[in-house]
């Protein structure tokens, strides 16, 4: 599974929009959108982005 596959699965599982992702981890909206690309226009998701997103989701869940 690629980092892009993990990213797409994570945002789908938690019903996150690109705007929400950009706000949660402090990246631009366009970066969050570009990571959804597939095929020839694929923009790899850095592993640190996945880690930041997973930690942010976990922290939010712990607060609830």
Structural class of the secondary structure composition?
mainly alpha
- Beta strand %: under 5%
CA-atom Rg in angstroms: 11 Å
Low-confidence stretches: none
The number of distinct structural domains comes to 1
What is the CATH-assigned architecture? Orthogonal Bundle
Order of helix and strand elements from N to C terminus: HHHH
Q: What percentage of residues falls in helices of 4 or more residues?
A: 55-70%
Tell me how many strands there are: 0
Describe the largest sheet. Answer: none
Number of helices: 4
- Briefly note the CATH topology name: 434 Repressor (Amino-terminal Domain)
Give structural notes.
- The structure is a single chain.
- The chain has helices at residues 3-13, 18-25, 29-34, 47-63.
- The model has no long low-confidence stretch (mean pLDDT 94).
- The N and C termini lie far apart (30 Å).
- It has a single domain, classed as Orthogonal Bundle (434 Repressor (Amino-terminal Domain)).
- The longest helix has 17 residues, at 47-63.
- The protein has 64 residues and is mostly helical.
